[in-house]
Design brief:
Layout (H helix, E strand, L loop, with lengths): L17 H10 L6 H15 L15 H7 L4 H14 L4 E9 L8 E10 L3 E4 L30 E2 L9 H9 L3 H7 L16
Length: 202
């Protein structure tokens, strides 16, 4: 069983908030199995909370309850919400990261994309960024199906390890941002913090 820190409440994973509590009661009514809860939670965050850039929203929610109430957020914010929903149900959840281009090519440089790891007898990785044409992440117990598969010819890779808390640099960036333009200008470009669970780099 993972360390208790993967179940802990956190300023950005505020799962005791009434809105999250009410959501969980609705989502999981009659559901006891943790795998099914994870599947339901994943599809809710992926499909019902659109990525801010997809809907051209300048709302910049950060903590989980604000993402739920705003009904939008970027990848890091959506990961906060998925972690909060799962931890509310006693399912360990953490954070993982990927180094990818900010645009389709390298014209805007690189950024850190955030997604989740969930413990269901073993750690699985789930990317609830939000599907659209060309971006098709899925729930799978056998393999990780990310929103952004790494591409040859680019400096794209998955950072090794699983983190118990959201990335501090990304949270600070979102707190300071007032629009999508601010996010693009100040987005987190790399990670120096060490993970709580070590893994080999892909």
């Amino acid at each position: 069983m993972p360390d208790a820190k993967f179940l802990a409440e956190h300023p950005y994973i505020d799962f005791s908030h009434p809105a999250i509590d009410m959501l969980c009661q609705t989502l999981f009514s009659g559901v006891e199995d943790n795998t099914e809860k994870a599947r339901i939670a994943y599809h809710f965050v992926r499909d019902e909370i659109p990525h801010s850039f997809d809907i051209e929203s300048d709302l910049v929610p950060v903590k989980a309850s604000d993402v739920l109430l705003a009904k939008t957020g970027i990848c890091h914010a959506k990961a906060n919400l998925l972690a909060a929903i799962l931890r509310h149900e006693g399912i360990p959840a953490g954070f993982c990261f990927e180094h990818i281009t900010l645009a389709h090519d390298e014209k805007l440089g690189y950024c850190v994309h955030g997604f989740n790891a969930v413990y269901l007898g073993k750690w699985i990785k789930l990317d609830a960024r939000g599907n659209k044409e060309g971006i098709q992440a899925e729930f799978s117990l056998e393999e990780f199906i990310p929103a952004f598969p790494t591409r040859e010819g680019f400096n794209e890779y998955f950072y090794p390890g699983i983190y118990a808390e959201p990335l501090a640099d990304a949270m600070q960036m979102l707190e300071a941002a007032n629009s999508r333009a601010d996010i693009i200008e100040t987005i987190t470009r790399d990670i120096t913090a060490k993970p709580d669970i070590e893994e080999e780099k892909d």
